[in-house]
Amino acid sequence: MRRTSERIPWLSRRQADVLSELLHGATNKEIARALGVSPATVAYHLRQLFVLAGVDTRAGLVAWAFQHGDRLRPGWITSIDELDRSGTSK
Hints:
The protein is an all-alpha fold. It has one domain: Winged helix-like DNA-binding domain superfamily/Winged helix DNA-binding domain (Arc Repressor Mutant, subunit A, Orthogonal Bundle). 49% of the residues lie in helices and 0% in strands. The protein is built from four helices and no strands.
């Protein structure tokens, strides 16, 4: 796992973990491998996140996460500028 997520009041710990991996550009299979769950479990959590964010695409979810970065725990990526070209946090 790239990052360990602390509990966010309005996200479950697993949703926060999935979102963190997604923000680093991971596919469902990569997220599943990193978190030790099945790709179907990742898809379930992504669907829950889509509903929570009011979006229907991964890109929309990433945009939502960046817009609400001030509500995420310190240390989470809060702007595109904090990503280097490889998709990892600077």
